[in-house]
Write a structure and sequence with these properties.
The protein is of the alpha/beta class. The chain has 11 helices and 7 strands. Helix 9 links the parallel strand 4 and strand 5.
């Protein structure tokens, strides 16, 4: 059964029919209700059904497409200098683990990375994000992937991204020592961006995780929804 506050919050968000208009801070303000809700098997199962409907009936794609359109409108108006680059997250930003979550009945915990699933390199692209990627590449932007996936997944991640159409310029994965220490990814990603900024002009950052969009060298930030975890 789902226990984490964030998982419960995400489920209630969808249960309430709030796709993009219900702000995250309002959802988290209801955390006590979410914990009670998670202990109600019938309501929990109903919520899981609504999550499936949200992702599979087009609402998620529509929300992401709207975000992508706003992002493209911004980036296309900027002066694109040499080595202007955008930093991308991978999971639930470029690729999605939705099929795995559904298979696990949405009971997977984010601390337990689905290593074997991702090692197969079969994560599907998020269509509006791939479209945005290709349009920005055509404009001249470089694309840099910085992901908290462990370094042992580098080959599988690279092949998966390229196979789905993400012809990136650089890919950086979380070093194994940091992964094994369960170190927070936010400060590490900021340090990576700083190093990349020595060679690129960081025009923007795109991620489903707010922590990826904070700190130095972010540029214009694009936050995506993630109702899975």
């Amino acid at each position: 059964m789902l226990k984490s506050v964030k998982q419960c919050a995400m489920i209630l968000l969808v249960l309430l029919g709030a796709n993009s208009v219900f702000a995250m801070e309002h959802v988290l303000a209801l955390r006590d209700a979410k914990l009670q809700f998670a202990d109600d098997p019938d309501k929990l199962q109903e919520a899981k059904g609504r999550i499936v409907a949200y992702y599979e009936d087009g609402a998620y794609a529509a929300e992401v497409r709207e975000i992508c359109e706003r992002a493209f409108d911004y980036f296309k108006e900027q002066e694109i200098v040499e080595n202007a680059a955008i930093v991308w997250d991978v999971d639930e930003t470029a690729l999605t683990d939705y099929d795995l979550f559904k298979e696990l009945n949405f009971e997977w915990h984010p601390k337990k990375e689905p290593f074997e699933y991702r090692l197969k390199g079969q994560c599907k692209p998020i269509a509006p994000m791939l479209e945005l990627f290709l349009k920005l590449k055509k404009l001249g932007y470089k694309h840099l992937f910085v992901t908290a996936r462990r370094a042992a997944l580098e080959v599988a991640t690279s092949q998966n991204l390229k196979h789905e159409g993400y012809a990136f310029d650089e890919l950086v994965l979380l070093p194994m020592d940091l992964f094994e220490r369960d170190a927070p990814s936010g400060p590490w990603k900021e340090s990576v961006r700083k190093k990349l900024a020595e060679r690129y002009i960081i025009a923007g950052s795109i991620s489903d995780a707010q922590r990826d969009l904070e700190g130095e060298c972010c540029g214009y930030t694009v936050k995506l929804p993630n109702y899975l975890y």
